[in-house]
Specification:
heterodimer, A: 2 domains, 5-stranded parallel sheet, 12 strands, elongated, B: about 475 residues, Heat Shock Protein 90, 3 domains
Chain lengths: ~220, ~475
């Protein structure tokens, strides 16, 4: 998988680059909009990460030109602006997803993977599986080994989100946004409490613990057991 | 704090102008009619008096030339000619002794005016008298005059024609007045409306601006110089405000961008460190947490300033307020359970309205955050919702420590935190933002609190 990163902040870019390489991607980096556009047209990429505020050619114009040339590469927009109208404008121009700075690298990674997955056009499976944990999305049955696990609707959504991102760290902000559709973090530790409940049902009575806390960052559902 | 207050018609300038106009117009028309009427009636009376005086001169001449008997028969003839119903003639001696009269069958109980007789005896040429006639509707006018030989003649005429003519005038005038009052009121209202149309336009524009739209301008094409000046002054003020707000927005955007850039770098460094190191790195975890806190703080300050300055672009959508509250309740329920709180939800099945979903979610969550944070273990937090025609009231009642009276007015201020809450986490911006969101939706948040027993926060939103 090959990713194009167009970002003028060198420090930030170097960290994103190394992070994506560790996750198994090949990354090319452009420091300004014009170079970014040339690279996107010349090389076949699986996805692009584009900052909005760029020297020489801004991110939105870059996407516009790509789309006018019928280039359908999935694009994730990075921006410091977080208002709804900025987001809507970004998506209308042809962006496929929008992430505001500062962001968690884990979230960036999860979104890039989701974009590539969506673009590959694979049909959605009815059953999700990690280790001995199985989740049926139609019957909403969850089993670990042979034992059925009863989950509240919110716990089900939380576990589904963790399984879909299995192996990757999900942050509290990502959980709030994707599981509860809240685009902010409440001051009280609702996420910790929610994950704690889920652990009681999924992990408590088992030798291998699936849900691991990455201190300060978030949670990860281990892929390999 | 609903901006569009119902103003009573009675207090509008247009209505008062209409009333003043109607009163002035009516009073002046009435005065004009009165003067006209007085002049007409005095002319009529004058004519009548000249008529009587002419008769008096005639009889004086007959008396002088032909004697009393001839005068008497002339009197009978004269009254017969006019009709005994309409006129009469009497002859008196100076002391009031009646010596002759015409047919007085229509003129019952006629007195003799002693005053007039004594004036005549003192040499006055003639004296007029207006008198009531017993049993008849109209009055009569009479003249006393000396006709020589110490004799006095009284010639009287019934005033039926004169008074009926004046009566016609009076009824025509009253009919016109009855039309004039409503007519003047309507004209006054139209004039007031027309004069104040420009002012109304300025008001409309001001209303639009208070909802955050700074692009509107008042039209300056009016006939009235005063309104044109008001409009252009107002427009000038709008230009200034627009420039200031745009400048402030840009500055906020710049600050946000410049502040977030270094935070983004620090954050990703800490995160990489945590993700790659095998064991826990306590410093990196703390740095990450502080970064997140800083980001939240910047975002909350920006959201609050935007909402307070009215420059937020609300993303208005149809939504179910009950659904949002129910979801928030489910989200916070495990937390309440862990804290051993009695968490009660009592809201209608659904409550459709219009609003910015994410902002409303945040407002509700902030208040629930607070209530759950400050209520001690074993206490109670209750959510209730009431829907009326005009607005929706959402109340969140807790059994926390309550808020002392002297702190109540300040709890919505930025960075205000009650003494009791200093040990708890938070930035002191939650309530400020919640209220700013309510206000930007045209509503408000009020608080009722009894120290030692708990507080109730009530969000009121207009049902649009």
């Amino acid at each position: 998988m090959r990713i194009l990163l167009v970002e003028d902040d060198e420090t930030l870019a170097s960290f994103i680059e190394s992070g994506l390489r560790e996750a198994g991607f090949a990354v090319d980096h452009a420091c300004d909009g014009e170079t970014g556009l040339h690279m996107a047209v010349a090389e076949p990429y699986d996805a692009a990460v584009v900052d909005i505020m760029l020297p020489r050619l801004d991110g939105l114009s870059l996407i516009e030109q790509l789309r006018s040339e019928k280039n359908n590469i999935p694009v994730l927009i990075l921006s410091a602006k977080r208002s709804v109208s900025d987001r809507v404008q970004g998506l209308q121009t042809g962006g496929d997803d929008y992430l505001t700075k500062p962001f968690a690298f884990s979230e960036l990674l999860a979104r890039i993977q989701a974009l590539i997955r969506r673009n590959s056009g694979k049909s959605e499976p009815h059953t999700l599986q990690v280790g001995d944990l199985t989740m049926n999305l139609l019957t909403r049955n969850v089993t670990r080994g042979r034992t059925k696990i009863d989950l509240q609707p919110l716990e089900f959504s939380l576990l589904e989100y963790l399984i879909r991102n299995a192996g990757n760290v999900v942050t509290k902000t990502m959980i709030m946004e994707h599981v509860w559709d809240y685009n902010f973090d409440p001051q009280t530790n609702v996420v910790e409490v929610g994950v704690c409940r889920l652990r009681d049902k999924v992990d408590k009575n088992y030798e291998t613990k699936l849900i691991r806390t990455v201190r300060g960052v978030g949670y990860v559902l281990e892929k390999e057991t | 704090m609903f901006l569009r207050k119902k103003h009573s018609l009675l207090h509008t300038l247009a209505f008062r102008l209409a009333v003043y106009y109607a009163v002035i117009f009516t009073v002046s028309s009435f005065l004009a009619f009165m003067i006209f009427y007085l002049i007409i009636s005095s002319i009529i009376q004058d004519n009548r008096d000249q008529d009587l005086l002419g008769d008096l001169r005639e009889f004086t001449a007959i008396m002088q030339n032909k004697g009393l008997e001839e005068a008497k028969s002339a009197a009978l003839l004269e009254t017969k000619g006019d009709g005994e119903h309409n006129s009469f003639i009497r002859f008196f001696t100076m002391n009031g002794q009646e010596i002759m009269s015409s047919d007085l069958s229509s003129w019952r109980n006629m007195k003799v005016s002693r005053l007039a007789l004594s004036e005549i005896s003192r040499g006055t040429d003639h004296v007029f008298e207006t008198m009531h006639v017993q049993g008849r509707r109209h009055k009569a006018r009479a003249v006393y005059g000396s006709i020589g030989d110490r004799l006095v003649i009284q010639i009287g005429e019934y005033l039926e024609d004169d008074e009926e003519l004046l009566g016609v005038f009076r009824s025509v005038f009253s009919a016109i007045m009855i039309f004039i009052i409503p007519f003047a009121t309507i004209i006054g209202l139209l004039m007031g409306r027309h004069a104040l149309h420009g002012v109304e336009q300025v008001t409309q524009t001001a209303m639009n601006i208070s909802t955050g739209d700074l692009e509107h301008r008042v039209s300056v094409n009016t006939n009235a110089e005063e309104i044109t000046r008001l409009a252009s002054t107002f427009n000038y003020m709008l230009d200034r405000i627009n420039a200031l707000v745009t400048g402030m927005r840009n500055m906020l955007d710049d600050i946000t961008h410049d502040l977030k850039k270094p935070i983004a770098r620090v954050r990703i460094m800490a995160e990489k460190n945590l993700l790659s190191s095998t064991g826990d790195d306590p410093y990196a975890a703390s740095i990450l947490e502080e970064c997140d806190r800083l980001i939240q703080m910047i975002d909350t300050i920006l959201d609050t300033s935007e909402a307070e300055s009215g420059s937020t672009r609300l993303h208005m959508q149809h939504m179910d307020m009950a659904g949002i509250v129910r979801k928030a309740y489910e989200l916070f329920f495990p937390l309440a359970e862990d804290k051993n709180l009695n968490f009660i939800l009592d809201i209608p099945e659904s409550c459709p309205m219009t609003g910015d979903i994410h902002k409303i979610q945040r407002m509700v969550a902030n208040l629930l955050d607070n209530a759950l944070k400050y209520t001690p273990s074993g206490g109670e937090v209750a959510i209730s919702m009431k829907k009326s025609d005009q607005h929706v009231d959402l109340s969140i009642r807790d059994t926390g420590p309550g808020i002392p009276g002297d702190e109540l007015p300040h709890i919505f201020e930025r960075f205000h935190r009650g003494d009791k809450s200093r040990s708890e986490a938070g930035f002191g911006l939650g309530l400020t933002l919640a209220r700013a969101i309510a206000v930007s939706h045209g509503g408000d948040i009020t608080v009722h609190s009894i120290p030692g027993h708990g507080s109730t926060f009530t969000i009121t939103l207009p049902d649009r």
